[in-house]
Amino acid sequence: MLGHHYTHSFLETAIASVNAGCNLELSYGMRNNVFMHIPQALAMGNITLQMLRDRVRPLFYTRMRLGEFDPPDMNPYSSLDLSVVQSPEHRNLSLEAAVKSFVLLKNVRGTLPLRARDLSSQHLAVVGPFADNPRVLFGDYAPVPEPQYIYTPRRGLEMLGANVSFTAGCREPRCWQYSRAELVRVVEAADVVLICLGTGIDVETEAKDRSDLSLPGHQLELLQDAVQ
Prior knowledge:
By secondary structure, this protein is mainly alpha-helical. It has helices at 10-20, 38-44, 49-65, 88-100, 116-119, 153-159, 180-188, 219-227, and strands at residues 123-127, 163-167, 192-195.
């Protein structure tokens, strides 16, 4: 609120936030954060002790329901170790979630889904800055996965035995430099073309907004060239 000039100090922000019902502050790495001024606001009479109790109660209720105050032997997660991380059971569940979350907007002539049994007889072109760049596949606030567990579109298709040709067209999502000749060469020789475009955290994240929804750089040109 301070950055948007709704308030002029952390003290004003604390008063406005608590009165509005906010009971949790996210201020990573700040020792003198906004809610550190709550005692001063209380002493000044801008907020009441009952109001603070009302704000704190749901926080501790939630923590108690999560078992944070239970003895360790009552916590079912205390028996888990790193062997469960990336276990086959969890990876299969992640795969199922990914498959079920796909949104198919248009499927001309029933082109999709591609069938694994047909891939070996087809020549696939996988193109675009998101086709084989693991770094750009994850959004803001995403965890940092182990590289061996990251499957780019190119890597995934190659693991299925597909005959894959690849070119990024441009190195990164901003797509400032675009190699049209290389793209055309790869696409013209293919039976099926997969075009992998987007933005990624290089282009937009929290506090890095854009004024429009257009594809960045030469990505639209890359798409048009691939289709033509």
